[in-house]
Write a structure and sequence with these properties.
The chain has about 80 residues and is α+β, with helices and mostly antiparallel strands. The chain has one domain: Alpha-Beta Plaits (2-Layer Sandwich). Helices cover about 25% and strands about 25% of the residues. It has three helices and four strands. The protein has a two-stranded antiparallel sheet. A two-stranded antiparallel sheet has the order 2-3. A hairpin with a 2-residue loop joins strand 2 and strand 3. It is globular and about 35 Å long. It starts with a helix and ends with a strand. The relative contact order is 0.28. The model is unreliable at about 1-5 (pLDDT under 50). The chain binds iron/sulfur cluster (2 copies). One iron/sulfur cluster (SF4) binds next to loops. One iron/sulfur cluster binds near residues 15, 36, 37, 55 and 61.
Amino acid sequence: MSTMVEDARGIFIRVQVSEERCVGIAACGRCLPACPVNIFVPRRDRIGVQEEDECILCELCLQACQPYEAIRIVKLYEQ
Ligand code: SF4
Ligand code: SF4
């Protein structure tokens, strides 16, 4: 059932932004336009995440953030 799939994705994918590694929107902000489903949102100069269940695992954010390695896509079902 689709409801179960949506629930599972919501539970089993986490998008994490390291506060220590992220240099902020003014200095970078590259993840904001990179994500096709707008997971990343501005929170003042920091990066917030929303609706992680929409993540399609494209890894474009990881490429955008490569110099800093601040983003982690955690697939809880693989742990
Ligand atoms: S791409 Fe990485 S370093 Fe740049 S704003 Fe996004 S999370 Fe921070
Ligand atoms: S993997 Fe793709 S869909 Fe998921 S947060 Fe990163 S850019 Fe967005």
